[in-house]
Design goal:
This protein is of the alpha+beta class. It has 8 helices and 23 strands. The chain folds into 2 domains: about 5-235, Rossmann fold; about 245-355, Nucleic acid-binding proteins (OB fold (Dihydrolipoamide Acetyltransferase, E2P)), CATH 2.40.50.140. Helices cover about 25% and strands about 30% of the residues. It has a 6-stranded mixed beta sheet, with helices on both faces. It is globular and about 75 Å long. Keywords: ATP-binding, Cell membrane, Membrane, Nucleotide-binding, Transport.
């Protein structure tokens, strides 16, 4: 297990990058704690896999260093970093049995045969393949082969880190949930440092202790699922986390009040003078429907019943926004305004969250 340090790290696929826009991975300086489970979350092309491949040694960074437990491993090849990596598509030895595939990393390091047999049996049970141990991998389905890849990545207990690059892409939905749960159990039992790349927020939020949200080659926030939901540090986090994502409104702020589309909205806290593009972010869960004429004028355009709750789509001065109500809530035809719960309001300047006066550090 290892603490992983990203020191002044950046990468460009161009031979002579001239500006920040030329970098697929913009400068990063972070310490990731020994033994924690992290999810790298973001849209395709945001730099997740680039960062993972730099950590594993498959890619050499254009600048900066990677340190494991404060030891510089930037120049070390993958084999010397003592990591296990599982890729998006299965990588197995087709001519070997499932048993031999799982045992290979341990045999390659001269582990005791009795321990190998015990560990292989344990991992086979974890991935649901105990009945297939003596089958050749060649005849198995793609999702079965990917389970072998996952098992082979998890079979070693002495690795510095386990790296997963969207490993559940080819797994059927029911098995995805089971394997995610098993990965979480494995982490809790053995305390490996784990990094899991995904563009699926459900995978990230259910797997990780901390979610690392990436946007345009940057890490825009590292936090727990609760922190990402309640206090998104960047408008992208508000948009990307949650379904539907955060509502954003351009606003003018004067102390404890915001002017949005001509309506005065109480913020519940004071803000100093804010420069740049100012926006108010409110998640749908904190939008209340009103029939008494108070709040911002709004018109319901449609109601979506998704089983657990209802999503109310509204038009506010030509802008579509969303509100969420309980499944059994009655939505009156007289709704003509919306009100914001002040505890759910976030203020942004040039897409970055602004702390309220007296608010503690994020």
């Amino acid at each position: 297990m290892a603490k992983i340090t990203l020191d002044n790290l950046a990468h460009s696929y161009l031979p002579n990058p001239k500006s920040e826009e030329d970098f697929a991975l913009k400068e990063l300086n972070h310490d990731w704690a020994d033994g924690e489970a992290y999810a790298l979350l973001g849209a395709s092309g945001c730099g997740k896999s680039t960062l993972l491949n730099i950590i594993s040694g498959l890619l050499h960074p254009s600048q900066g260093r990677i340190l494991f437990n404060d030891v510089d491993v930037t120049q070390d090849p993958t084999a010397e970093r003592n990591i296990a990596q599982v890729f998006q598509f299965p990588v197995v030895y087709d001519t070997m049995t499932v048993r031999d595939n799982l045992a290979f990393p341990l045999r390659n390091r001269g582990a005791d045969p009795v321990y190998i047999a015990q560990r292989v049996a344990q991992i086979a049970t974890m991935i649901g393949m105990e009945a297939d141990l003596d089958r050749k991998a060649r005849g198995l389905t793609a999702d079965a082969k990917q389970k072998i890849s996952l098992g082979r990545g998890m079979v070693r207990e002495d690795v510095n880190a386990l790296l997963f690059d969207e490993p559940l892409t080819v797994i059927d939905p029911h098995m995805k949930w089971e394997l995610r749960t098993q990965l979480k159990s494995l982490h809790q039992e053995f305390g490996h440092t784990m990094i899991y790349v995904t563009h699926d927020q459900t995978e990230a939020l259910t797997f990780a202790d901390k979610v690392v949200v990436m946007y345009d080659g940057r890490v825009v926030q590292i936090g727990t699922p609760q922190e990402l939901f309640e206090r998104p540090a960047h408008t992208f986090v508000g948009f990307f986390i949650g379904s539907p994502g955060m509502n954003l409104f351009h606003a003018e702020i004067d102390g404890t009040t915001a002017n949005i589309h001509g309506s005065q909205v109480a913020l519940g806290a004071g803000y100093g003078r804010i420069k740049g593009k100012v926006q108010i972010g409110v998640r749908p869960e904190f939008v209340r429907l009103s029939t008494d004429g108070t709040g911002m004028p709004a018109r319901i355009t449609r109601i979506e019943d998704v089983g657990r709750h209802k999503i109310i789509r509204l038009d506010v001065a030509g802008q579509e926004i969303s509100a969420i109500t309980d499944e059994d809530a009655h939505v009156s035809t007289g709704v003509n305004h919306i009100i914001f719960d002040t505890k759910g309001i976030n203020v942004y300047a040039d897409d970055w969250r602004v702390a309220a006066e007296g608010e503690g550090a994020l």
